[in-house]
Amino acid sequence: MTALAADSDGHVFSQPVLFMRISLFITCFNDTMFPETGRAVVRLLERLGHTVEFPMGQTCCGQMHYNTGYQREAIPLVRHFVDVFREAEVVVSPSASCVGMVRHLYPAAAELANDPKLAEEVEALRPRVFELSEFLVGKLGVEDVGAYYPHRVTYHPTCHSLRMLKVGDAPLRLLRAVRGIDLVELPQATECCGFGGTFAVKNSDTSMAMLGDKLRCVLETKAEVCCSADNSCLMHIGGALHRQRAGVGTIHLAEILASTGTETEDRHGL
Amino acid sequence: MTTARDQVLERIRSAIRDVPESEQPEDVVVHRNYLVANSDSSRHGIIEQFMERVAEYKAVVRRVNQNELVEAIKDACHSRGMTRLAVPADLPADWPPSGVEILRDPGLTYDQLDHVDGILTGCALAIAQTGTIVLDAGVAQGRRVLTLLPDYHLCVVFADQVVGMVPEAFRALSATSTRPMTFISGPSATSDIELNRVEGVHGPRTLHVLVVDNV
Amino acid sequence: MGSEGLPTAPPIPFQDAAKVSLANAQLRRNMGKATRTIRGKRELVVAEMPDWEGLREAGRAIKERTIRHLDRALIQLEASVQQAGGQVHWARDAEEARKIVADVAKSHDVKAVIKVKSLTTDEIGLNAELEAAGIEVTETDLAELIVQLAGDRSSHILVPAIHKNRSEIRELFREKLGAENLSDEPKELARVAREHLRKKFLTTTMAVSGANFAIAETGTVCVVESEGNGRMCLTLPNVLVSVMGIEKVIPEWNDLEVFMQLLPRSSTAERMNPYTSFWTGVTPGDGPQEFHLILLDNGRTRALADPHGRESLYCIRCSACLNICPVYERTGGHAYNSVYPGPIGAILTPLLVGEQNAPSLPYASSLCGACYEVCPVKINIPEILIHLRGKVVRHKQDQEGLRGRLDPEGLAMKLLAWTFREPGRFETAQRLGRIGQWPLVKNGTIEHLPGPVADWSAMRDLVPVPEQSFREWWRTRT
User: Fold this and answer.
1) What is the pLDDT, as a whole number, of residue A65?
2) d(Cα A113, Cα A120) in Å, to the nearest integer?
3) Hey, which residues 121-180 in chain B have their CB within 8 Å of chain C?
4) Would you kindly state where each structural domain of chain A is located, as residue ranges?
5) Backbone torsions φ then ψ of B209, nearest 5 degrees
6) I want to staple A241 with a disulfide (CB 3.0 to 4.6 A). Which of A246, C152, C225, C238 is the partner?
7) Which CATH fold would you assign to the domain B44-213?
8) Residue contact C274–B185, C-beta within 8 A
């Protein structure tokens, strides 16, 4: 079923899109720490004409446990995720690293659980789980989402979006179509910011050395905000920008795409 | 007593016991989805590429006609003020230049080779893609030490010896692959100081290539 | 020289060792400059290959084919080498391999050996053994020589002295080789090395090398190098001993057409390295007249037994993963406390020695995945790192008794996992977090964190948990 999507002002977008029933996987981290990102995803997807559902049973994909080595502990969380989203038409999440967990590590987790049924269910669910930008560009075929964001922005491609999910330039295509935006290229953009989940705590000195170089690049752009597809990396980058009173904020890609200039809750980072 | 051989093999077999017993090595498919020859290049293009890439390694390279070869060898030797030149036993008789003392292998000692002004050889083949010369101890090449101790290596490459790509070279060499073989890409070099290539360490510091048009 | 082999017990944790290198500004500058240079060049020589992905796939498949049937490949190699006049030895561990080399030396009453740079001989700690037996060992690779002269340790698998810049090397040569009036021009530094080593090459009667590849079909052994020191060692002495890990065997001569394209471009970012030597057993009148090949296990079968970690044995030691790694770039190689540093070392070392003996290495990565992208044989390093982290934790939980089970991190993780199993528990925890954070929040931000996460706040503020969670908001709209 295709149709033209219209925003609240009745502006009709040029691209035909599918109306879909989308299950939002907000992730435990965004749910707790960055609810405004979730609200932005809902606003954005509904503006494009889709139906957003939020299964209240959802909690955590288990990435932190799994990647830190607590893999047996992650297995119940994998089961839980599969239980919650089993019936979903598509699952969309504003977190590349959590989607990466589901797509690339759930099979190994199911193998570790020695549970062929879980493995089967993981295989069935995996292809329906998407990171927001790859969903918009790759699945819906939309680049211009009708956003307005009159600020100087630089985009940091997070490692998991770039190298694990291979979202390519999907986020940049979306950003380039935003009205009013002054998008500036981030030098050495593809270098890791040094977050790496528990890496930031376990190897904090190395993490900070990497962060220092990332900050230098962000500041060089003279952007007002640094944007990316993962709030976890942004918390790390933004936390340091805030400490340095750099006057540069951080913002999730979804929030820029949701902006139309009329919302009261547009956020400009920390 | 179990030998080390038995035990290592036993450990290997135990480690790979998840590999089905019926599986043969060929069952692991190797897709060779890579170029084995550059079909779009002309002979001329291949020679040009070879010369260009040899030169990029800071080797000296010059193209000559077959009837200019002897003169070109002489020029090369004289321009370096060479007095003693080592050559392999089966070098074509007309190659060694006049006016230079020729030391013919076999029988040359390391000390003699360390004190000659240069070595003159042919080659087995050459690779355009990488600017590589291959020596396989065949005709006009001699043993490996000849092209190692002298500080100057003058190498004659016939145009029909130049292949386009690396896979062509290995396939052409497979018949003689058990001979001692050396791939030479430019003069000796190192990347050990700040990861920058610097020419001239232990091997010949000057590589001079004469490409002979014979096709 | 210049190496500490492999750890046999948990060494200083990576994160502690890294602090030392991170504090060394000169080291960080040298490392940053060198790795940035090589990264850029590698990108260029890879970009000119339209079939690079096909080569990577083929390289990986050839390695997989060999490793899954490693016993057969080695038996074939052994027969081929013997038929060509070489002698083959098998070594279960480092000690056995060292003894074989020392015995060959003693049987010829050799007082000195020259060496081609070889990670495998570093891994087994060969030099110390030979020196203890009264045999002088000379490293002939320029970087190894620098490290040996400085009494330093290797910090890179390809360029052991990558942590030193040209002026530091000049100072070292002035001091140790008496080279006065020396500039810091790399060309001149190379000349000094040439003069210093030439006599050793001409007079030493035994050499020791590693091997980049060995062909099962023909018995041909291959050493890839740049300077010509390798050719000297492989050609001039009468006796040659090559020590190779059992995983270095490949089936056929023609397989080299893949690896000899992948390796030079990935390692030194060249279309082809200056010199590659191939030899098959012994050739009368050309090169060493006695050849020994040592097939070394030393933990490789342990790595082989891990089906998820096994592909680490595909490694061709190009060092592209080191050069691209943001962690390695900043910490340098010494922090890894192993002859194999960088991303490949972070998986290979624990796989060779057992994860309990190198438990911090799988955590020495932000899992950014850059290593996997450049690996010429597509070793999925990030996934193996994660797999090994699991093994480290399971070992702690299952083998270390009460201490392992009462580990604070482990308890916290268990509690958190329990919380996430029920949405109700999760929501309660969200509320508790919001309430519990009040002592930390000042002016709407958290500047100091307590306990094990205190390091977070060393250079970063933290946003406080906001008033309303997403799910609370969702409830308000329906």
Assistant:
1) 98
2) 12
3) 127, 129-132, 137, 143-145, 148, 166-167, 169-171, 173-174, 177-180
4) 2-139, 152-258
5) -115, 130
6) A246
7) Rossmann fold (3.40.50)
8) yes
* Residue B159 and residue B43 in contact, taking contact as beta carbons nearer than 8 Å: yes
Q: Give one DSSP letter per residue of C152-211, joined into a string.
A: ----SSS-TTTTS-HHHHHHHHHHHH---S--S-HHHHHHHHHHHHHHHHHH--EEEE--
DSSP string, C61-95: HHHHHHHTTHHHHHHHHHHHHHHTT-EEEEESSHH
pLDDT at A219 over 50: yes
Which residue carries 């076999």 as its tokens?
B106
Q: List the one residue out of C352, C33, C344 whose CA is nearest residue C158.
A: C344
Q: Where are the domains of chain C?
A: 66-301, 426-477
Residue of B nearest to C33 (CA): B194
Q: Which candidate, A172, A216, A175, places its Cα nearest to that of A194?
A: A216
B192:C229 CB<8 A: no
Architecture (CATH level 2) of domain A2-139: Up-down Bundle (1.20)
Top mean-pLDDT range of A258-267, B188-197, C21-30: C21-30
- Protein fold of C66-301: Rossmann fold (3.40.50)
Measured between alpha carbons, how far is residue C77 from residues B48, C70, C74, C190, C288 in Å? 39, 10, 5, 37, 19
CA distance B126 to B141: 13
Examine residue B25 and say whether the peptide bond preceding it is cis (omega within 30 degrees of 0): no
Beta bridge partners of B207: B153
pTM of the model as a whole = 0.94
Q: How far is A184 from chain C (nearest CA, A)?
A: 22
- Token representation of residue A227: 């944007």
How far from the centroid of its chain's Cα atoms is residue A226's Cα?
14
From chain A, pick out residues whose CB is under 8 angstroms from the CB of C473. 35, 38-39
Per-residue pLDDT at B2 = 87
Q: How far is C237 from chain B (nearest CA, A)?
A: 11
Q: Do C421 and A201 touch (CB under 8 A)?
A: no
Angle at B202 between CA B47 and CA C108, to 5 degrees: 125
Tell me: the pLDDT tens digits for B130-145? Answer: 999 999 999 999 999 9
C-alpha to C-alpha distance for C357 and C321, rounded to whole angstroms: 23
C291 — phi, psi (to 5°)? Answer: -130, 130
Q: What is the DSSP letter of A11?
A: P
Which of C14, C35, C367 is most worth mutating to test chain A (most A CB atoms within 10 A of its CB)? Answer: C367
What does pLDDT average to in each consecutive run of 10 residues of chain C (478 residues)? 69 93 89 90 97 98 98 98 98 97 97 95 95 94 89 85 88 88 87 90 97 98 96 98 98 98 96 97 97 98 97 97 96 94 97 97 98 98 98 93 86 95 96 91 89 86 94 91
Query: What is the per-residue DSSP string for B106-146?
Result: SS--HHHHHHSSEEEE--SEEETTTTEEEE-S-TTT--GGG
